[in-house]
Amino acid sequence: MSMCQLSSKVERDAKQGVLQAKGNLDDPEWTLSMTCLQFGKYQGKAFFQLLQNDVEWTVMAMADHSNQGKRPRELKMHSGTTSTPFTGEL
Predict the structure, then answer these.
(1) pLDDT by residue (tens digit) across 6-33?
(2) What is the tens place of the pLDDT at every residue in 31-41?
(3) CA angle 73, 59, 65 (to 5 degrees)
(4) What is the pLDDT of residues 47-65, one digit of tens each?
(5) 73 pLDDT exceeds 70?
(6) In angstroms, rounded to a whole number, what is the distance separating the alpha carbons of residues 50 and 14?
């Protein structure tokens, strides 16, 4: 199954959840809230269920996702010193 097919199935399932909850299909937030995670310990759970049951994990996952691809200029070390991230070049 290709990623596009997977993506369309996830969206179809989420919209089905909106209909079952008598939500508004024209509101993208409804669809997003009914979207099931495809990974991790909450795989198969709808996003709104995460907010109801494990807010801390949800916030951590969202923060991690929003920081993907970003490289800090400096990483602070525990001792209070700073270090430039390794770039793969010596």
Answers:
(1) 688 999 999 999 999 999 999 999 999 9
(2) 999 999 888 88
(3) 50
(4) 999 989 999 988 888 888 7
(5) no
(6) 15
Q: What string of DSSP letters covers 5-63?
A: HHHHHHHHHHHHHHHHTT--TT-HHHHHHHPBP-SSTTTT-BHHHHHHH-HHHHHHHHH
**CA–CA separation, 10 and 2 (whole Å):** 12
Phi, psi of 31 (to 5 degrees): -60, -45
Helix (H) or strand (E) holding 82: strand 82-83
Query: Which pairs count as long-range contacts for 2-9, CB under 8 Å and 24+ apart, including other chains?
Result: 6/38
